[in-house]
Amino acid sequence: MQDVAAELQRLAQSDQISLQSLLEHEEFIDVLIEATQIVLRTSVTEKKAALKNAVINSALPNPPEASLQNIYLRFVDDLTSWHLRVLSLFHDPRQWFMDHGRKSPEFTMTSSLGALLEKAFPELAGRREFYDFISKDLYLKGLLSTDGLHTMMTASGTYESRSTDLGKGLIRFISISDL
């Protein structure tokens, strides 16, 4: 959480936030407390980064409403790092490959989301039961719009976003855009 304090200080120095107003902002304090409690219960790097970003985003102007912030924090607490990785991939597959310094796979005529997932995460090749569980769980939580990864579709269709509005909101809340 020291990284959070340093980032908040940087934002205050660039006049993007007021530290004094944050101390008086109950919703921000609630997010800070909840995120701190979750950080204490995890050693997972992806979750720690997501929580840091959530606290920072809650400090910025126009954060999500308090109820959504609480829902997003519960998701971070409940989901595994694989859930977060898969959601990030299916949120914007082309951008995901660019962000990871990799070329998007070129499928010929048809493909499936499962094939895309295995190209993104080679370590999941042959672990269909595991990643099907992850994707189904994301679907049941309302974060992905599809519950199956093995339906054949056009090659370009594999690159369409599969995150729901709730999933998009979670990704925005736990990610840092260029400030």
Would you spell out the secondary-structure blueprint of this structure?
Elements: H1 2-13, H2 19-23, H3 26-40, H4 45-59, H5 66-78, H6 81-91, H7 93-99, E1 110-111, H8 113-120, H9 128-140, E2 153-154, H10 165-173
Antiparallel strand pairs: 1-2
Helix pairs in contact: 1-4, 3-4, 3-5, 4-5, 6-7, 6-9
Q: Report, as a whole number of angstroms, the end-to-end distance.
A: 19 Å
**Strand order of the biggest β-sheet:** 1-2
Query: How many DSSP H or I helices?
Result: 10
Low-pLDDT ranges: none
Helix-strand sequence: HHHHHHHEHHEH
Largest sheet: 2 strands, antiparallel
**What is the rounded Rg?**
18 Å
Mean of all residue-level pLDDT scores? 93
Describe this protein with a few key phrases.
single chain; 179 residues; mainly alpha; 2 domains; two-stranded antiparallel ribbon
Short note summarizing the structure:
It contains 10 helices and 2 strands; from the N terminus they run αααααααβααβα. It is 60% helix and 2% strand. The two termini are 19 Å apart.
Write up this protein.
The chain has 179 residues and is mainly alpha-helical. The chain folds into two domains: 2-74, no CATH class; 82-169, no CATH class. The chain is 60% helix and 2% strand. It has ten helices and two strands. It has a two-stranded antiparallel ribbon. Helix 1 (2-13) packs parallel to helix 4 (45-59), helix 3 packs antiparallel against helix 4 and helix 6 (81-91) packs across helix 7 (93-99).
